[in-house]
Amino acid sequence: MRDDELAYYSTAGPMTTLDPGSDAFEELPEDPLALGPVVQGLILHEFWADRYGVEIPPARADEVETRAASAMVELIRRLDPAPLSTSRPPDRRMIGNCRHFSTLTCALLRRSGIPARARCGFATYFETDRYIDHWVVEYWEPAPARWRRVDYQLDLVQRQALGLAFDTTDLPPGSFLDAAEAWQLCRSGGADPERFGILDFWGIWFVRNNVVRDLAALNKMELLPWDGWGLMTVAEEHEAGPASAVIDKVADAIVADAWLECRGLYEEHDLLRVPEAVVSYRAGTTVALPA
Q1: For residue 141, which phi and psi values (nearest 5 degrees)?
Q2: CB of 215 within 8 A of CB of 265?
């Protein structure tokens, strides 16, 4: 692993910058895995709220539109001013989704100088025979020198509800596919693209868009699952067009963990690089991003 790559992922990007002088971070654990219960006590996944006995008030539904980790911390402390090390009752947690768990965790890890990256892809453990849109975190373990893949969203309530028998703090191969792995699997005929997606959204176009999102996240721009820009807006009715050729190249670089190539592709292609503003398809508006 390149030292400059680890240095890159140990520092914050626009979405993961936190206020170094804030008292919000007092008494946070140094162990990366110990951050799991911390973050799980701060965010309530909108799809799991009923499992915790919470009915989300309509006035709070837009909390899921929060992008930057600094804004998440501000919102969390507006709901409850205690430091982040204090677990909140479910009804006083920020309303979010898997991307919020992953991005906030990534920000906290980078704040401690631990190389970390949020990953966008598909999990196999939410629905039988389907690959569900999902985000997880990878952090660097010096020994045995690897990226450890962790699902920081899944607490005991969710693990028991899903009946998971494996360790979600060290995801086994195949349980989560990053978007590039999913793209290559679909392109090779190894899986039906119509099994990849979420809610009413399925197909190769969804996989393609997640490759763009994952590339952005690998370049420290961790955006919302429904944010769109560039190549995501290109309509292509078949898999042999120019957009797919670009995604093939991106997927090859991501799967090979070719960091410099991922950086280069992102910087060189206007349709891949995150612009100053993106479209929130959920909100139906254009949103300016923090610099």
Answers
A1: -100, 115
A2: yes
**How many separate domains does the chain show?**
1
Please write the tens of the pLDDT for every residue from 194-243.
Answer: 999 999 999 999 999 999 999 999 999 999 999 999 999 776 545 556 78
Quote the strand ranges of the chain, DSSP E. 43-45, 94-96, 116-123, 131-141, 146-150, 176-178, 196-198, 201-202, 227-228, 277-280, 285-288
Q: Which residues contact 107 (CB under 8 A, 6 or more apart)?
A: 12, 15, 16, 17, 18, 69
CA distance 43 to 24: 15
Q: What is the pLDDT of residue 116?
A: 98
Q: Which two tokens stand for residue 206?
A: 């969804």
Q: Which range marks the domain in which residue 224 is found?
A: 3-288
What CA–CA distance (Å, rounded) separates 149 from 138? 4
Residues β-bridged to residue 120: 135
Packing angle, helices 259-268 and 204-218, rounded to 10? 110
User: How many Cα atoms occupy the beta-carbon half-sphere of 189 within 13 Å?
Assistant: 0
Positions in the chain whose pLDDT score sits under 50: 237
Look at residue 239 in the predicted model and tell me its pLDDT.
57
